[in-house]
Amino acid sequence: MEGSMSSSPNSRIALVTGGNKGIGLEVCKQLGSNGITVVLTARDQARGTSAIEELKCPGFSDVIFHQLDITDALSITRLANFLKNRFERLDILVNNAAIGGTERPTIFGSIPVNKKVQQFDGMDRTQRLEWLFKNCRETYQATKQCLETNYYGTKQVTEALLPLLQCSPDGRIVNVSSSVGLLWQFRNEELTQELNDIDHLTEKRLDELLDMFLKDFEAGRVQVRGWPTEFPAYKVAKAAMNAYSRILARRHPALCVNCADPGFTSTDMTLNTGVLTPEEGARNIVRVVLLPDGELTGAYFQEGQQASFL
Ligand SMILES: NC(=O)c1ccc[n+]([C@@H]2O[C@H](COP(=O)([O-])OP(=O)(O)OC[C@H]3O[C@@H](n4cnc5c(N)ncnc54)[C@H](OP(=O)(O)O)[C@@H]3O)[C@@H](O)[C@H]2O)c1
Fold first, then answer.
1. 234 annotated active-site
2. What is the CB < 6 Å shell around ligand 1?
3. What's the CA angle centered on 180, arms 176 and 183, to 5 degrees?
4. Residue 257: which CATH number?
5. What is the pLDDT of residues 65-108, one digit of tens each?
6. Which residues span the domain enclosing 94?
């Protein structure tokens, strides 16, 4: 279940979800090279252990692997028990794992997507996003899976690890968000206001809104109801995660709970259309994880700079 390198007794303990590739793997590397003990998690044992091999190099701090599928309650419980027995606390949780919420283009077949990268040379960010949208298919199944992973999975992991974060003198949660989850994406004033009214918004209401979105998607009412269009599931799930982060920050003032957008990054999720490297994207997350002022909470950071949720 888990593999480890030796761990120094006084270092901070960070856990990264979806740490086997892309931005998550780079976040693990950067936290590790800052002297932090990293628990790299992945849903697939083989992919996780091979990622760990990549991190076994001189000058690197401690990295430990543990399996975690963020949609699997048993897997989450096993991880929480492991952390409790091994460290009795958690200092940093980086909720990075997510999916795109669409079906991948069939044109790629089994060819690794990184072989295709030259075709985006000369395209600007908007053209790349348009290409991506044209080549992905929105289905009900992918939409449902996206909400279950990106919102409910992230929430389940967070709730299970909260008691351990509360045992830390400086507990921090960074939820990896996206600029496409900002509220300007919604074209329904009531919905926007409701999602931004953190004094009154509840987790129960968030569940109701997500149910409503799913029903609207199934009935073809996404546009008329004013939900975001083009990758709506991904956008709605990130907006819900942002709102949940703000609720959590209010509920637990002793913790720092923030959201961070890495920027448009070249990874499997974007079929390598992104303009930043995974290392650059990860730097935007790690900057928020390591904020010197550990008191800032309930905030959103776009590529390392504090910005509005709107
Ligand atoms: N790339 C961008 O431009 C961009 C922009 C804004 C925000 N983000 C956010 O950045 C984060 C990382 O994305 P990325 O671009 O690095 O994507 P990626 O390369 O596709 O990596 C996603 C990671 O999430 C894991 N994952 C998916 N479902 C999981 C589950 N049920 N349980 C555990 N792990 C699961 C994947 O594991 P497998 O390998 O097993 O599939 C993989 O490790 C995501 O939150 C994404 O929304 C990305």
1. yes
2. 17-18, 20-24, 42-44, 47, 68-71, 96-99, 149, 153, 176, 178, 261-262, 264-265, 267-270, 274
3. 105
4. 3.40.50.720
5. 999 999 999 999 999 999 999 999 999 999 999 999 998 765 55
6. 2-307
Express each pLDDT in 104-147 by its tens digit: 765 554 445 555 556 788 888 888 888 888 888 899 999 999 99
Span 256-275, pLDDT tens digits:
999 999 999 999 999 999 99
CB count, 10 Å around CB of 112?
A: 9
Residue among 43, 75, 175, 179 to mutate when testing ligand 1 (max atoms within 8 A of CB): 43
The number of distinct structural domains making up the chain is 1
Joined tokens for residue 82: 């492991």
Map tokens 């003032």 to a residue: 253
Distance CA 143, CA 232 (A): 8
